[in-house]
Amino acid sequence: MIEGILLENALEEILKRADRITDTKKVKVEEANGFCLAENIYAELDNPPFPRSPVDGYAVRSEDIRGAVRGNPAVLKVAGCIYAGDNGGAFSIKPGEAYRIMTGAPFPEGADTAVKQEDTDCGEETVKVNKSQKPWDNYCFQGEDYKKNSLLLAKGSRITFAEQGILSGIGRTEVAVYRKPVIRVLTTGDELCQPGNPLKPGKIYDSNGMMVSSRLRELGVKPESVSHCADSEAGLAAELKKAAEDADIIVTTGGVSVGKKDILHGALEILGAEKIFWRIRLQPGTPTIFSVYGKTLILSLSGNPFGAMANLELLLRPALEAMTGDPAFAMEMRRGIMEVDFEKRCKVRRFVRAVYKNGKVSFPQGIFSSGAIGTLRGCNCLLDIPAGRENVKAGEQVAVWML
Ligand SMILES: Nc1nc2c(c(=O)[nH]1)N[C@H]1C(S)=C(S)[C@@H](COP(=O)(O)OP(=O)(O)OC[C@H]3O[C@@H](n4cnc5c(N)ncnc54)[C@H](O)[C@@H]3O)O[C@H]1N2
Ligand code: MOO
What we know:
Number of strands: 25
Strand order of the largest sheet: 1-17-19-20-16-12-15
Largest sheet: 7 strands, mixed
Bound molecules: ligand LQZAQKY5, molybdate ion
Number of domains: 4
CATH superfamily of the largest domain: MoaB/Mog-like domain
Shape: elongated
CATH architecture of the largest domain: 3-Layer(aba) Sandwich
Strand content: 25-35%
CATH topology of the largest domain: Molybdenum Cofactor Biosythetic Enzyme, Chain A
């Protein structure tokens, strides 16, 4: 077990053990958002599947309207009307004819352009066309969006609304995806009271359970369970063992420091988990423990809400990226200019909740200790102040990690 590790090395230790998940399953397209594709998706048809009109107007042969101008229009016989949904193969245009046509409707055989109805007299029997058009003006070609058998979506890509639209656009209702990591969240601490119950003296409401699970859901991995465990080493060991039956990752909060009820150490020992590291040289969340039990990674975060939250971002997101191959989990680093001074008291690398906007970095009003939760509101990044640095001054350029 490594005691006191740099963040970079802590990440290395985690990533070494964060194996890529290769199990696949079929899901309905409507439920596929956030999964990564486990198959290449090829177009099963041309899109559009037939040449179609992009305007409401008249399908014509461009040679029949050559030289037409207002005052000297081309006059054509209206041979019929074609609506979106009609079969274009059933219509064929002859010289001197026009078809009334709607947006999205198939072109009749032989027509090579559609004239907007605003450029005509909107005639029913015959139509006066006041404008000349080149062949293929206002003409959507079959397959112009994509051709049958072309690669539309590559295996491994994350499915968002756009991919779901594309899948529906080729008529798919199901798709093969990689299963997401199974995560179980356990909060610990006898002082915790679950929201909805009256708060007894000395107790506090459990906010970590909600915050951690909600953040995981926001990131795209809804935890399988969120539960609370009392401060009993044997009890927690049993809970961890049960959770590890199917979990790829167990996230715990609280009980990782040196207090008499900091039970993670004892519980992990009873469980027989291999402790990989304890204590990262950063603030907040210094006493984080990372251990492994069988194939399950156990990330034990500090009970202090900001310690838990910051370490979830810094340690779990890279692990999720490695397990899924999905770069959407990675944190984005930006550079910004400090709007005010910030006083850093610790020697280690420090992450501070902050607001990044238009290249400027500012802070919420209030306190920033790792036990404070109120000032998380509105923050969208973690300011990264390197080890050894002291105060950071207004006007300085700094690095922030976007949440
Ligand atoms: N003698 C020392 N004391 C402490 C050290 C140290 O090095 N030597 N480290 C401090 C640091 S840094 C941190 S961080 C905390 C970590 O403590 P634990 O992870 O063991 O967490 P707890 O003691 O269980 O809780 C800390 C704090 O957070 C509150 N908490 C816990 N769980 C929740 C929850 N689910 N929702 C809301 N709040 C929660 C808890 O009541 C405590 O106030 O240790 C320092 N001490
Ligand atoms: O490392 Mo702790 O989260 O600062 O208070």
